[in-house]
Amino acid sequence: MEPNPKSKTVRGLNVAVIILAVLGLIGCIALAAFTALVSTAVNENSADIAASIQNLNLDDEAVKVDIDTQDRESIDKALSTIEGFENVDTSKMIDLLQMLKEGDDQGILDMFTKDDGSLDELITSFTGLSDAQLTELAASIEGVEASDLIGLRDLMVTVRASDLGNVSGKDVVEGTNILMTGISYTAIAFGAVMILLSLIAGILGCKNAYEPKKLGSAFAMGIVGAAASLLCLRLVTMVLLIISCVQINKVRKNS
After folding, report:
1. Can you say whether the dihedral through the CA atoms of 229, 178, 104, 149 is positive or negative?
2. What DSSP string describes 13-77?
3. Measured between alpha carbons, how far is 7 from 208 in angstroms, rounded to an integer?
């Protein structure tokens, strides 16, 4: 008895699936190797990358609002009248207000992240201020709103709670690199597993193409492989496996 012509079609389709699956696995290996190289390079140069990010000036033409000497003296006087600030060096506070007036959020964050402990007393005093005290202070500083000072106080509270001052730019770069590398490897592993399922489907379909009694497992695995291919967006493989399943079903009915 001559084999069903559709069995030849099934075999051809699954050979194509096997070839695409092998190429896909090679791609996963290459992508994993590339990810490892990039991750290693970022870790080795994390300090330089952090420095480059911190030195970026995205607003070179921004108009800067300077707090002049007279303003600094009045601010220093205003701060010294607030309970808890009598013995605090307010120069860093004035620098923070300068950044606040300029909208330099990155500068404020850098001051906290690079702090060597000199901000501890200032943070302790400033975080203890009430909304009313901050409103009174803002009224004595031109260009600074009470809401800005309240937001700065809340930021200091967050810094104190999270110990952000001990986190350097290098740590941030390395942490981000670890996170992104982990996500990349997870995606690659997921894709590789999905490709393996389609490879198994292709092997079963190719092996049992001329044995209708054994095509039941090939049909079931073909459905699984098609679904797996859809999940990792390998649409060509998905279409090939769907067509293969249709042909397998016809071979089984005619046997």
Report:
1. positive
2. HHHHHHHHHHHHHHHHHHHHHHHHHHHHHHHHTHHHHHHHHHT--S-TTPPP----HHHHHHHHH
3. 9
CA dist., res. 223 & res. 162, Å (int): 50
DSSP state of 127: T
Query: Is residue 55 a part of any domain in this protein?
Result: no
Is 108 in contact with 99 (CB distance < 8 Å)?
A: yes
- Report yes or no on whether pTM surpasses 0.85: no
Alpha-carbon span 136 to 82, nearest angstrom: 10
Number of structural domains the chain divides into: 2
Summarised one tens digit per residue, pLDDT across range 95-148 is 777 777 677 767 776 776 666 566 666 677 777 778 887 787 777 766 677 887
Contacts of 251 (CB under 8 A, 6+ apart): 4, 6, 7, 10, 209, 212, 215
Question: What is the extent of the structural domain holding 226?
Answer: 5-43+172-254
DSSP state letter for 164: G
Q: Is residue 53 part of a domain?
A: no
CB 186 within 8 A of CB 225: no
Asked if residue 217 is part of any domain, the answer here is yes
| Burial class, 248, CB count within 10 angstroms (exposed 0-12 / middle 13-18 / buried 19+) | buried
3-state SS, residue 179: helix
DSSP helix, strand, coil percent of the chain (3-state; round to 5)? 75, 0, 25
